[in-house]
Amino acid sequence: MKEWLLAYSAVPAILAGVCAGLLVVIDDRRWALITLGGQYACVAWLCALSLTLPVATAKLLAGWMSTLVLVITLRRAGWPTARPLGEAIPTGLAFRMLATLLVTTAVLGLGQVNWLSLPQVQPAAVSGGILLVGLGLLQLGLTEEALRVGLGLLTMISGFEAVYSALEPSLAMVGLLAAVHIGIALAISYLLASRVREVQLGEDT
Amino acid sequence: MNAPFLLLLATAFLAIATLATRSKPRLQTVVGVGGCLALAILILLVRLDAAASLLGLSLKLGSIWRVLGRALVLDQAARAAIAFLYAVGAFLFFAANSAKVKATFVPLGLFCLACVAGSLMIRPFLYAAILLELAAIGGLLILLEPQPRSERGGLRLLSLYTMAMLAILLAGWVLDVSGLSKVTPELAQRATVLLSLGFSILLFLPPFHIWLPSAAQRSHPYLVVFVAVVLQSAGLFFLLHFLDAYEWLRTSPTVFAGMRSVGFAVLVFGGLMAFVQTSFEKMMAYAMVADMGVTLIAVGAGLLEGYQLAMGLNAAKAVGLSTWALGASSLRKRQASGGMTGLDGNHARAPLAYACALFGAFSLAGLPGTAGFPLRWSLLTILASRDIVSAIGVIVASSLLAGSVLRWLAPLVSFEPTPWLATHPRSERILLLGAALMSLAIGAFPQILYPWLVRAVTGLPNLSP
Question: How confident is the model at residue A2 (pLDDT cuts 50, 70, 90)?
């Protein structure tokens, strides 16, 4: 199993980058959360290159739990659309697509240099991880809408984990980072739910 | 039995109890404040790793809790720092009901305190970065308010803390790989860059302070002060731990000179920005930034006295900000719009609250007679013979901050007569007066607060040989 995962390690790296790019571009919240679930599967594969399979599966489950928390909240709220925030940066579809392409190119270029001399990390994990961190940062830079910020943070941490799990494979670290994923998902859910409640109260009055 | 487990268990119990009593604000206050105070006192006084007799039973409370292959250690440094944070928590929870903050503030505040306490106890202490991230999640929830876009500051805080966590974890790995004693200059440079990024975020240094003015403008001042004091204190303790742990870091003159230069720049930036603000809350946010500049200069002195002063300055900031927050909350209640972009007319509607807010602001500026003054004076005496530029920076920035606060006294000398209508309820009057008197008392007798805070530094063996 491990050999098979190693042999096709480029697949999750590419797919993780595609998922992170789609998260920046997609407007529909349903599809965004499905993409997030797919991204977690790719990240678990990248982590499995250096961790044991049960631990990588635990990471996957923690990621899917975070996704599920967001799905349940938005489903209960009736999948509300994001309110425009009047952002200073243009955030149209074409702009986001172009920005995603630019960041992907830049990040892949930067990823060719081993800045921190990471010897024991698989090249696929480094490429996938750095793509996720770059696109997560792009997501954070483009908007201040709660769900998108949450998705950006989860993407960024996932990218970091893809690399860091090879450097620090301890169970305590895996557990604490899983707590961070679920914590962020819960906080964003609480925020979304409270805003939806206020809108509903405003409409009632 | 071990103390770290009991401390976290007790805090969790308190959080659940205060959540259950959120519909009864007075009971919630009693539980939250009583619990926090009791824990702060116990943390300081209890004897660890020594047999003690209780009701005829021999008990030994350990200082180490091992969980998932890692340890949480309640040592001397952690004890003083955690006790300080719990005492700050108790103080801020005490007036929460009067300040009319949301009912979930106390349980969420206790969650934050537990995360920060965990971050001060965990070994290897690099794991503290993750626990601080969890505390920032709590901070986001605390800052969230019904008014539109109040989440902006909290979301920025969380985003920045996530970056800090990643940078510090990576720096920790770089240092672990190279070993504690043989860091090559190249690795040291990489680790320093990552650590600088991480600590700049944890200490709210510009440009990573952006969440603070945003939160100050849109969230309740009381909530902003709690989050800022708890998280910034945790960042400072974490920095001192780092200096204590890595010899190449604490023996590098470049690192300390860099800290003093950054501190100077932050101080001047904060002072100037505070001076040009037209909103009282935003002015205080920049005053907080400037205050961290002073603290950084104290740490950058590279002396035991400097580290002790940094701890003291942190405590003085907590006192000044708490006093300001109490006054500002009281003023905020009297604003029909819910915002507080100015204080016009409030000197007449709520004179005591107005005085309390100004007194807290003066304390943060370090004016004589307030809690912030004695430590700034001590710092100036150290800097006078070592780094005259930083000393001048402290004086100039303090003057700028004092000038910023003085501008808010303008309504008192207004030519238009305003009828004085003191409308404070009795309990609020007592709280406001108490806060202002406390700030004054600590300014006049600093020895009542600072000696036990200094113990936090004596617990770091390499910083206080």
Answer: confident
Residue A180 pLDDT greater than 90, yes or no? yes
- Contact list, A171 vs chain B (CB under 8 Å): 68-69
Q: How many CB atoms lie within 10 A of CB B360?
A: 31
Q: Strand B70-73 vs strand B64-67: parallel, antiparallel, or unpaired?
A: antiparallel
Q: For residue A198, list chain B residues with Cβ-Cβ distance below 8 A.
A: 146
**Adjacent-strand bridge partners of B62:** B2
Residue B132 tokens read as: 């601080």
- Phi first, then psi: what are they for A153, rounded to 5°? -65, -45
Tokens standing for A103? 């960041």
pLDDT above 90 for B31: yes
Instruction: Please name the residue that has the structure tokens 């209508």.
Output: B421
Q: How far apart are CA B28 and CA B31, in angstroms?
A: 5
* H/E stretch holding B60: strand B57-60
Strand partners for B71: B66, B123
Average pLDDT over residues B76-85: 87
The reported pLDDT for the residue numbered B412 is: 62
Dihedral of alpha carbons B268, B269, B274, B275, sign: positive
Q: Which of A140, A80, A137 is nearest to A106 (CA)?
A: A137
The Cα of A84 is separated from the nearest Cα of chain B by a number of Å equal to 11
Residue ranges of alpha helices (H) inside B366-464 are 373-386, 388-407, 426-444, 450-458
CA distance linking residue B310 with residue B295, whole number of Å: 5
Mean pLDDT of B202-220: 91
B414-432, pLDDT tens digit by residue? 555 555 555 667 777 888 8
A68's tokens: 């599920």
The region, left, alpha or beta by phi > 0 then psi within -120 to 50, assigned to residue B460 is beta
In chain B, which residue's Cα lies nearest the Cα of A145? B152
Q: Is B210 on the interface with A (CB under 8 A)?
A: no
Pairing assessment for the beta strands B51-54 and B122-123 based on DSSP bridges: unpaired
For B25, half-sphere exposure in the C-beta direction (CA atoms, 13 angstrom radius) is: 12
pTM of the model: 0.92
CA–CA gap between residue A141 and residue A27 (Å, rounded): 16
Q: Which chain A residues touch B158 with a CB distance below 8 Å?
A: 149, 153, 184, 187
- Using a CB–CB cutoff of 8 Å, tell me whether B80 touches chain A: no
Encoded amino acid at B363, one letter: S
Average pLDDT score over residue span A50-69:
94
For residues B196-216, average pLDDT: 92
Statement: residue A186 has pLDDT above 50: yes
Of residues B352 and A66, more confidence is placed in A66
In this predicted model, which residue has the larger pLDDT, A136 or B48? A136
Residues of B in contact with A153 (CB under 8 A): 158-159, 162
Cα separation values, B159 from A128, B147, B224, B461, Å: 21, 21, 17, 34
pLDDT for res B340? 47
Q: How far is CA A146 from CA A81, A199, B162, B412, B425, in A?
A: 12, 15, 15, 42, 39
- A154 neighbors A184 (Cβ within 8 angstroms): yes
Chain A residues with CB within 8 Å of chain B CB:
85, 115-116, 133, 140, 144, 146, 149, 152-153, 156-157, 160, 164, 167-168, 170-173, 175-177, 179-180, 183-184, 186-187, 190-191, 194-195, 198
With an 8 Å Cβ cutoff, are A144 and B133 in contact? no
Å from A2 to nearest chain B CA? 25
Residue A96 has which token pair? Answer: 């986001």
